[in-house]
């Protein structure tokens, strides 16, 4: 008989794998590997996400890993920018290509005249000459392909040419207009020829399981997740959720008890925890899920209490006063406010080390 896992059990299992039941004293590269990447649509969130997960994390730790190329920021899952280990990028970039090819459909009529057989080699040649910003890439390609929409040219290059962003000494690792370079040159080897979808699914389960095929597809954007999990079925454990849906997991992955304490945590914008499942009740109640994204599709920063997203938060820094504002989805018990205030003050000290005062507020 298949064992059923409650929403609470799934919550604790996922938090354990996401380094959110306790801060871990491990290097940043190992942490990003265990997380199977961190969404990095903007450069700042991974710094905050690692601070929430690692004991003694310093911004310099992530800077160093970016500079020594053990971590890269590049287009990966769901055609969005992710922070990945160089090894994982090389191993899994080819697996992403079918999804990235499909993402070109959003161009619609703007893709008129776009010939990838010509544009991709031309872009590679330009980037072989040296790193360039995408404004530069678009402008140079437009000279060669004047009949093609410049935004379509740039988007095609983002999706069809393996690229990484060049890190700098900017506070959060990258400037607003970052340069890109060919991944093979930066990492010393081209992406692996094999798609490695099955290995990617094992890594997904290690970071986010137990999970369904639909969950894996939501996280990756790949259509082939169900087929890959079927091939892996003999080596996996199979569970059911409270709605009878089939969940896959690694046999020896952590599945702590439902009553294991979950500490207060602040997660940054775009954190993969809130994006990695089709059914997100293990992290956020369905009623609150619409509050996660803005009209322009920004994924808001959330705070966790007792393992669940209980509201959104932001910060402000004025006149040496650092303020963190919590906006709960529902009224919080005083115990939650107290725990979140302590964690929030620590976060403000990390974010604004020169602040003379830190303030955490709860807005209703």
Helix/strand layout:
Layout (H helix, E strand, L loop, with lengths): L6 H11 L10 H7 L3 E2 L5 H9 L5 H9 L3 E5 L5 E5 H18 L12 H13 L3 E2 H11 L5 H11 L2 E3 L13 E4 H5 L9 H12 L4 H8 L4 H8 L4 E4 L5 E4 L15 E3 L34 E4 L2 E11 L2 E8 L5 H18 L5 E6 L2
Please give a quick description of this structure:
By secondary structure, the protein is of the alpha+beta class. The chain has 13 helices and 13 strands.
Can you give the helix content as a percent range?
A: 25-40%
Arithmetic mean of pLDDT: 96
Strand-pairing-aware structural class: alpha+beta
Unreliable residue runs: none
The number of distinct helices, counting runs of at least 4 residues, comes to: 13
Question: What string, H for helix and E for strand, traces the elements in order?
Answer: HHEHHEEHHEHHEEHHHHEEEEEEHE
Task: Count all strands and give the number.
Answer: 13
Percent range for β-strand residues? 15-25%
Spell out the key features of this protein:
single chain, GMP Synthetase, Chain A, domain 3, three-stranded antiparallel β-sheet, DNA binding, AlkZ-like, about 375 residues, DNA-binding, 13 helices
Descriptive account of the structure:
With 364 residues, the protein is α+β, with helices and mostly antiparallel strands. The protein contains 13 helices and 13 strands. Helix 6 packs across helix 8 and helix 7 crosses helix 8. The longest helix is centred in the first third of the chain and has 18 residues. It is globular. It starts with 6 loop residues before the first helix and ends with a strand. Keywords: DNA-binding. One of its GO terms (molecular function) is DNA binding. This is Winged helix DNA-binding domain-containing protein.
